[in-house]
Amino acid sequence: MKAIQLVAHGPPGKFELRDVPDPQPGPGEVVVQVQSCGLNHLDLWLEEAGLPIPVKLPRTPGGEIAGKIVEIGSAAVPEASQRDAQLRQGYDGRAGAPRWNVGDAVAVQSNLFCGECEFCRRGEDSVCLRSEILGVQRDGGFAEKVVVPARALVRLPESVDFDTSAALTLAGSTAMHMLTNRAQVRAGDWVLAIGGASGVGSAAIQIARHLGARVISTGSTEAKRALARQLGAEFVLDPNDANWPAEIRKITNKHGVDLVVEHVGGEVLLKCFECLARDGTIVTCGATAGREVTLNLWPLFVKQHRLIGSYGRNRADLETTLEWAAAGKLKPVIDSIFPLDQTAAAFAMLRSRRVLGKVLVEPFKT
Ligand SMILES: [Zn+2]
Predict the structure, then answer these.
(1) CA 172–ligand 1 middle distance (angstroms)
(2) Who contacts 288 (Cβ-Cβ below 8 Å, separation ≥6)?
């Protein structure tokens, strides 16, 4: 099969389109033919060796995968470990536990989780003790096929196409996890969604609106601000204007925002505290602008602020995201779609920060 491999770190990294052996499924694994795969900032970190995780090259990146099952691995195991095998396959006997067939359309939970640790057992697979990132620690979806554990699969609702799935699976479910698991939105809350044209930001605006919140967002260009407004943000501010936190105080009649969905880090995170209402919460899932900040703890405890980390998603968040997409409550924003042999150009485009929404790769696009 054909696969893109990162052979040297950058930026720009050196990518090669190579013929590689077809992946073989082990017990409890399936092979998915990739129909569409989304790019994320995580891929850029992989490209530039910017992850605090050792990575072996060559590596096929890509974690936001939608496709069709083409092969199912053997589940043949000794009697004694039958139940373990069932768990590993996601056939754990729960009502509705999925059984998979060749031809099924699926999305993949890219935080590959063990299914057995204390966190996985209670459905919090985002904090699995033995998680691996698909497309970072093992080969991902910028290829014609990928092998993944069956337990990582989520069935695509009939009305959700592969591109919609690939545009929402990672960033959309990250926002779902932030807004419905790590933090809770009350109807009437003011929510600030940072970067309304980004993958997480564009989903966060829509989710917060559906939960009854009033949404403020940010965008560094007029096109990005227009997109954020179109998605449902009532007010969209330019983060290049140093006074944007003061503007939020004005908009909210000095109250501030009750919840911030943050994924930029650095100075932006600190500015978010200036916008935050008393008893307010910042939930953060990224740090593209800086991983280290100096935080003044006095206002943090006096105003009873909360700063909450959020990592990836649980499989349940992915299911909810796809259900919302099927119901038309969550729409993907797709900037552009590249064929597999132009994956390097797709990376360059995302790195340029001129994209509105998602950049996707379709391995079978000609
Ligand atoms: Zn686990």
Answers:
(1) 22
(2) 41, 263, 264, 265
